[in-house]
Amino acid sequence: MTGKIVILGVFVADTAYRADRMPRIGETILGNSFKLGPGGKGSNQSVAAARAGGTVHFISKLGRDPFADMALDTWKEAGVIPEVAQSDESYTGAAYIFIEEGTGDNAIIISPGIAGSITADYVAAQAGLIGGASVFMTQLEQPMEAAVRGLELARAAGVTTVLNPAPAAELPDGMLGLCDYVTPNESETEALTGRPVSGLDEARAAAEGLMSRGAGAAIITLGENGALYHDGRRSEHVPAFRAGDVVETTGAGDAFNGAFATALAEGRDPVEAVRFGCACAAISVTRPGTAPSMPRRSEIEALLAGGVG
């Protein structure tokens, strides 16, 4: 049985454009395709965690518009329990996603809308929910003060805390000290530590830097090279899985974090939780979209067992 997972974050509607290249300023080019779908790191992670078998509550804000309807439908399908206020004061968030046709790589602009008004007090109103969780996870798409407050409440209650420091931002002093696990990718790691990550040795050095600022353990995701788990006692590289040809890398980090949270909530060893997250991410990149690309638990278990790829 999995314990309860509480995730604080943002929903945005993803507007995804595929083209051979990014247009230059002042230039208009023809794209190859367009797709509208559900996104936002916190929402994506909630969907990934729920599909991976977790019992997931998602704290956020929505407007009252078609994008909000999309959010609610997405969570219902995945089994995510929304802990969400709706308001007419602003719009539900949206994101522009450019996808390079030849590689599947992406560039993203996020406008969080009403979720940008999530405050520390709004999060504190969910103290009972957070304190009753096995795992609390957040990112940096909602205001920083809200993320800090959520981590403070979880830490005070003895809840396992996970920070996915994305998008990259300067963290206030002491924030990493509230985190049992911090899960940056390579570029986020460099932004946090000033250390470029071009291999495992550099990743380990950067992980030590994160731990020196208070993090209990650092998990640096390395894209096609898997992930590094480092806690000062154990330092293990988990190679990437192959589940098929890469279609789109958007949402891969969210797939990893959601599945990682589910595995932690089940009481798994953290390195095994990293493996579970890597398997989830490997499947997600073989499909287009963000939330729609998140695999079911049976698919993750089949890949872990060697039944896929």
From TrEMBL:
Pathway(s) of this molecule: Carbohydrate metabolism; D-ribose degradation; D-ribose 5-phosphate from beta-D-ribopyranose: step 2/2
Binding annotation for ATP: N185, T221, L222, G223, E224, N225, G226, G253, D254
Note describing how the cofactor binds: Requires a divalent cation, most likely magnesium in vivo, as an electrophilic catalyst to aid phosphoryl group transfer. It is the chelate of the metal and the nucleotide that is the actual substrate.
Any one annotated GO CC term: cytosol
Record bears the keyword Nucleotide-binding: yes
Protein's GO biological process: D-ribose catabolic process
Names of the cofactor(s): Mg(2+)
Annotated signal sequence range: none
Active site, UniProt feature: D254
Domain Carbohydrate kinase PfkB: 5-295
Protein EC: 2.7.1.15
The protein's role, per its UniProt record: Catalyzes the phosphorylation of ribose at O-5 in a reaction requiring ATP and magnesium. The resulting D-ribose-5-phosphate can then be used either for sythesis of nucleotides, histidine, and tryptophan, or as a component of the pentose phosphate pathway.
Oligomeric form and interacting partners: Homodimer.
HAMAP family assigned: Ribokinase
Protein name as annotated: Ribokinase
Native source organism of the sequence: Psychromarinibacter sediminicola
Organism phylogeny: Bacteria, Pseudomonadati, Pseudomonadota, Alphaproteobacteria, Rhodobacterales
